[in-house]
Amino acid sequence: TPRVGVLALQGDVREHVRVLADLGADVVTVRRPDELAEVDGLVIPGGESSVIDKLARAFGMQDPLRAAIADGMPVYGTCAGLILLAARIADGAPGQQTLGGLDVTVRRNAFGSQVDSFEVDLEVEALGAPPVHAAFIRAPLVEEVGPGVEALATLDDGRVVAVRQGALLGTSFHPEVTGEQRFHALLLDLVRERVRRAGRRDAAR
Ligand code: GLN
User: Fold this and answer.
1) I need a labelling partner for 125 at 20 to 30 A (CA). Which of 35, 57, 60, 101 fits?
2) Which ligand 1 atom minimizes the distance to the CA of 93?
3) At 38, which CATH number?
4) Which domain holds residue 59?
5) Active-site pick, 16, 35, 125, 174
6) Residue 48 annotated as binding site
7) Is the ipTM value over 0.90, yes or no?
8) How many CB atoms lie within 10 A of CB 201?
9) CB of 106 within 8 A of CB of 90?
């Protein structure tokens, strides 16, 4: 079973732990570098990206997280987590930094405030039928997508709300609050593949 972490600095950690556990993963919460070193994949939850950024730096997690991403660790960011994975933020808080990894520009709160939260059904070809029931809660929008980035889902007007680049996944919305498990399952597939490859590398030594 793949061992997957949920970054537990701030945000809706518990919901992600539940989905991953339902899918049969060995799930742990991650706050410190030594805990990050023990996992093969990671979820960065929704919450407040500027707070998660500050705490990541205060806990000495920014560099280890960047190193893990550069090393090819599968990471799935939802909402604030997507913002943290984005290379660029159009409207960051003063001094706000990201981990990067996804060659995208995101706009925070692109849909307005908490009262403008909404739910829609999205066709996601990579996941097949049925459509994804997606909850947008003070959600960011992916405004620009680099050449290596695949748009996994768009709104009816074409705006991008889910992306993949290599082992990194990001969604503007929160599948973990609507019972949608397929994005987490996709993350676990990426984690298993990486563990398999690492095993082959070790065996060849
Ligand atoms: N607007 C929040 C931010 O900037 C994200 C909201 C969410 O994660 N639901 O981080």
Assistant:
1) 101
2) 4
3) 3.40.50.880
4) 3-204
5) 174
6) yes
7) yes
8) 9
9) yes
